[in-house]
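Hi! If you just cloned this repository, the fastest way to understand the data is to look at a raw example. We've pasted two of them here, unedited. The first protein comes first, obviously.
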Amino acid sequence: MSSQQRAERSADYPLECDHCHYPIPGDPQETDDGQFCSTACLEADGDDDAVPDPNAYKRIVTGIEPIDSLIPNGVPADSFVAVSGEAGTRRSELLTELVWRGIERGEPAVLVTATTPPTAVLERFFENGWNVLPALEDDRLRLVDCFTHRLADRDAFRERRGEWIEFVGEAAADAIVPIEDPADIEPILRECNAALDDLEMTETGLVAIDSLGELARGLETDHIHEFVAETRATVCKARYVPIVAGWPAGDEGATMDESVFDGIVDLRLADHLEPETRLRQLGVRKLTGARYLPQWITYEYEPARGLFASVVDSATGRASNGSPTPRGAQQRR
């Protein structure tokens, strides 16, 4: 290392390894091709497959105001995050928007539905003015259907669909992966991983599950913990693809050791702030490997806009529209 490099180097601006892109804690191993933190990186640098800058895929900005304002440096992409909320907190709308914001960024998405038919899931996007037909056509959105095969009469369900829902079903036919036996985790795990392979989802994209509570109720035995542990390992940790899953608050659904989650986002109704107004609030209970602010944010929802932070007047307790600007993180590309 040259004397000029040593002079310029400081704790705030350390040298970066030219292979792994992480700071070099000691003196670098230097060659004509660059400087490296270790022999492993020096030897691997000659391979054809270059390691991408970890800042490009290891953290993401969700594009949702209340979440991004609480997690200013981005969500670790290897996270399995549970969104816990009671009825009325718009948990399903949040999961829908997370998928849409990813599609807007040009990333693929897999949505596992256990609460409603795939066509009804797609209708949530359309109700917000979010047209997912191009994403379905371009094979950027896949729906793993853990609901339809629980219906007692699936043929009658299809025959009674209206023209619009029938059109949506036909347009999305190639993007829907039916699970023949949603009472067993093996076909769900298999088809989820197959969908990720088809969409080439490694270091890009998002998986949303709506919801773990409903999925747990459909299983023959309490295998939901095994499902979370398996998908967390094979999807989040191996591929750097985050999973965001709905999880019922309190006594609404199945119980599970919450230590299996990397992160938990809580949604609540805060009636105590204004007795005549049902304020909704969002807070981050935990998120491994990330800085997050220890506070509640009041939020509202509008079609097209999605979830947005609102400001509560301290004198009246009433909420008004607000638009805090998240900062500090760059969107994953």
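Ok, and the second one:
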Amino acid sequence: MNIEGQCDPAFAAVRDAFERSFAAGRELGATVAVYAGDRKVVDLWGGVADRRTGREWRADTPCLTFSCTKAVTATAALLLAERGAYDVDGPVTKWWPEYGVAGKEETTAAHLLSHQAGLPAFDRTVAAEEAADPAARAAELAGQAPLWTPGAAHGYHAMTFGWLAGEIVRRHAGCTVGEFAGREFTGGLELWLGATDEVIGRSARLSAGRRPEGGGAGDVSAYLGSLMHRALDNPAPGRGGFNNPVVLRGGWPASGMVATGRGLAGFYRDLVAGRILRPETLADAIRPRAAGPDRVLLTESSFGLGYMRPASTFHLPRTAAFGHTGAGGAVGLGDVEAGIGLAYIPNLMGNRLAGDTRAYDLVEAVYASLS
């Protein structure tokens, strides 16, 4: 496998880990990028972007990042709070009065951003075309009753997070998350929340990985009836799965971001450097607000205001890091202490909810290179 791009000799361990993953057959196509301060020390890619045609992964090949999107949505909401548009710890009803029904009257914006809102799933099946209407999806969630008292517990709002946190942006900036982020802090990056047809045309195509061993029909039936299934798999992407252009154009604010590795790593570079949020805003945002048993994922998770913190769902070699994983195996990560921004994006879907060993190997190699 021919790995292309650049890698600072001090970070040769990252290239080695990337090459080993391809050699072991764990990759189809992928990219990894790392910034140390403002210096791009790793920008590598390789493999096949589209298994059907054999199209190669190139320097400018973007790919869907799934829940890595949540960090960008959270950052947009936090930037508005920093500017005084609303109080993160104040009631949602002050700026979203329709939300204050069915036991949600005391919900705060912090609850929306830390997976404590009690609305991890829609009450009905939502089509991909419907998911492109953020106002309608937010209104639908506002009318639902929570599954637990907001703030009393947490559970991963895999899809609904985007329309809950996104409504903060829509109500205070008058536009979608993708539009606001593009105008304020992602415009110069290879990162799109609502991809154009041109971007979709050169994006990597996702491919399913091998099914995990040991899963029988009973396990599948139990999953299909679970809150986890309702939270993770609705809205349904429709024909073509998450390769569906309707999804990629739709700008789903929890899971729809398309990016290159250097685009996502560049976002964390700027975030860590204080160019998007003030350092004190970021420090408060990465402080764990919800940690422990996750009512949706049924394992330990930890969240600040939109950012994942180290836990069973986000394995990290150092605890200072923050960021977000994506369902297919992607990860975006920042570390203020180490001064790094990192991204890994594959198109061969992983099977682990708690992160991906391919990503962990790369992250571990980055930290080892800093020693």
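That's it. A detail worth noticing about the second one: DSSP finds 13 helices and twelve strands in the chain.
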